[in-house]
Design goal:
Elements: H1 2-18, H2 21-48
Helix pairs in contact: 1-2
C-alpha cells in the first residue's frame, strides 16, 4: 500500500511539472488517502500484532 502511495505521489509530481493541475490534485488526494490508510493499518497491526509470550497457532 505504501508503494501505491509513492506511485501516486510521483505521478502527481510529474503531472504538476507538465501542467496538468486537475490531475495533479486528484493524484495527490489518492496518495494522501493511501498513506494515511497505511499508517492506520500499521498502528493497528502494532497494537494487535502477535504477542511475544503467546502460543503460536
Amino acid at each position: 500500500m505504501l508503494r501505491w502511495s509513492l506511485a501516486f505521489l510521483i505521478l502527481a509530481l510529474i503531472a504538476g511539472v507538465l501542467g496538468f493541475g486537475g490531475l495533479e490534485g486528484t493524484l495527490m488526494q489518492f496518495a494522501k488517502i493511501l498513506f494515511f490508510l497505511f499508517l492506520i493499518l500499521f498502528v493497528v497491526s502494532l497494537i494487535f500484532g502477535r504477542r511475544a509470550g503467546g502460543p503460536i497457532v
